[in-house]
Structure formats: structure tokens, C-alpha cells
Write a structure and sequence with these properties.
The protein is α+β, with helices and mostly antiparallel strands. It is built from 10 helices and 11 strands. The protein has a 7-stranded antiparallel sheet with strand order 5-6-10-11-9-8-7. A hairpin with a 6-residue loop joins β2 (about 30-35) and β3. α1 (about 1-20) runs parallel beside α4. The two termini are about 30 Å apart.
């Protein structure tokens, strides 16, 4: 809501103009009061804060880089307006309000944390639970309340329950199926010949890359579980995000170029965001 974001932009603008350097700036350090017509904001955790007459562009962007996931959801015009309001009055306002530079900073800071996250995603940690059972080795992340449904999804898939399992793809490398559990719908992807060099197992790469791109706040089909089977096969259990792909939607709902044009602009914006985050998809297509 712009009724919320515009006052927030003005609050951040006051911080920029005051020369505030905050070493741990994030949304958790800003309190918000909604008992007025417009929200009011207050800054917390000032123990490491310093004030400067001159700040570098990077130091200024560190005050609001955490807005990137929020701004990425907005139309380009609204995003540019908010960035201009944050940078208003600064001597380098045009450079400070650069969306590409903000995204690059966001991605660089998230990437700096990835090495620690990656290590914790490969074993028992605060990010995921590691268990061993007759099926194989499980790594399960996310909401503990969903873990029973995740395990049921793989059990139904292995049992080939015809009433709950719909096969989506079947070739010599992978088998993919939609599975209806008591707790919702999941997609199970089986890698038939995954055993090999540890670092290049396709199921391992899928597990890590899905978590890594999610850290950049890119919308994806979340993968809450990876299972290494005892016979060398691998399984990824993913959330079911629907059955309609963009190729089908455009061909049925957008038969003319005029109807497809807005989608093209939006797709270009999404792809630019991925590239600014240094993400390259080697098999990207509308399907």
C-alpha cells in the first residue's frame, strides 16, 4: 500500500539527509505505529550508529537496501517514485535512487551469507532437520507442522497410489508427479540415477539452488525436503504452485499481440531482476 510506503520513504529520507550510518539496518529495527491516519516510524538499536556530514553512496543505500523485495513487487513507476522520495534533497539523488544498483547491493549482501547457509542446509542445523529411515536420508526444512504431509507425499508416490498420484513427466532421467496428501498438494520429483559425484548430484544441486534463489526473494516453488534414497535415487518434494504454465496462459487467454504486450514488459522486468542478482537460468522458457 502506498499509504504505508510513502511515509516510510519520507522517514528513510530523513535518515539519509541526517547522515546516519547504521551497521545493522533491517526492517526489524524500525518500529511502526498505526494509531494515526498515517503510520509513524521509530528507529531502534542505535548502539553502533554514527553521524556523518558526508556518506558514500553505498553507506546511504545500506539504510534502505532491505526494501528491495518489497519494491520489486511494485509497478516500475511507483518504485521509481518511492526511490526518488527516499533520495530527495541528496546531492547524488539520481545515483542514489538507482534501482539496478540497489538490487546489486542486495544480491551481494545476501550472497555473502550463502556459504554459512549452504553448510547448514546439508546437515542437521537450525535451517533443516536430518533423519534416516528405511527410505533413505532426509533433509527437511520449513514449518515442522508440514513435515507429516511431506513424508506422506513421498510414501504415496512410492506406493503409486492411483487415487492421489498424477504422473506429470516420465523419462530416463526424471519422473515427476503431483501428489494429493491429507495436508495439501505436493510435487515429487524423482532423479532416477542421481548417485555419482557428491557435488554434482542433480538432486543436491536442485535442493541448494532452490534455497539460494529463495534467499534473494524470488518467487519459486519452495522445496521443503530432499531425500537421498538407499539405492542411489534422489527425491525433491516441492510445494504445488498450480497446473497452468505461462505458455498455456498466453496461448489461451492472450491470443493477440496487444494482450501479450503487458506480459512481455513484466517478464522483461522479472528477468532483469534475476540478472541483476547474478542469476542465470539455463533452461528458461514460458513452459
Amino acid at each position: 500500500s502506498l499509504r504505508f510506503l510513502v511515509p516510510l520513504a519520507r522517514f528513510l529520507n530523513r535518515m539519509v539527509r541526517a547522515g546516519v550510518a547504521h551497521p545493522d539496518m533491517h526492517a526489524g529495527n524500525i518500529m511502526v505505529s498505526l494509531d494515526q491516519e498515517a503510520p509513524r516510524f521509530a528507529l531502534l538499536d542505535l548502539y553502533g550508529v554514527t553521524l556523518h556530514r558526508q556518506l558514500s553512496l553505498t553507506a546511504k543505500r545500506l539504510l534502505f537496501f532491505w526494501l528491495v523485495p518489497l519494491l520489486e513487487e511494485l509497478p516500475q513507476g511507483q518504485r521509481e517514485t518511492l526511490l526518488e522520495q527516499i533520495a530527495e534533497g541528496d546531492q547524488s539523488a539520481s545515483s542514489l535512487a538507482s534501482w539496478p544498483e540497489m538490487v546489486r547491493l542486495w544480491a551481494r549482501l545476501r550472497a555473502a551469507k550463502w556459504r554459512g547457509w549452504k553448510r547448514r542446509l546439508l546437515g542437521q542445523s537450525s535451517l533443516c532437520e536430518r533423519t534416516v529411515d528405511p527410505v533413505g536420508v532426509w533433509l527437511v526444512a520449513g514449518d515442522p507442522a508440514r513435515r507429516q504431509a511431506i513424508r506422506q507425499a513421498l510414501a504415496l508416490y512410492l506406493a503409486r497410489d492411483s487415487g492421489r498420484v498424477a504422473l506429470l513427466k516420465d523419462d530416463h532421467k526424471r519422473r515427476v508427479a503431483r501428489v494429493q496428501t491429507d495436508g495439501g498438494s505436493y510435487v515429487v520429483k524423482e532423479y532416477r540415477h542421481a548417485a555419482g559425484h557428491w557435488h554434482w548430484r542433480p538432486d543436491r544441486l536442485g535442493w541448494l539452488n532452490t534455497a539460494r534463489i529463495r534467499c534473494l526473494s524470488v518467487r519459486i516453488a519452495i522445496c521443503p525436503a530432499w531425500v537421498r534414497g538407499r539405492s542411489g535415487e534422489g527425491y525433491l518434494i516441492q510445494e504445488d504452485v498450480g497446473s497452468l504454465c505461462l505458455h498455456d496462459y498466453l496461448s489461451t487467454m492472450c491470443p493477440t499481440a496487444a494482450l501479450r504486450r503487458p506480459w512481455g514488459r513484466h517478464l522483461a522486468s522479472c528477468l532483469a531482476y534475476l540478472h541483476l542478482c547474478a542469476c542465470f537460468h539455463a533452461d528458461l522458457k514460458t513452459a
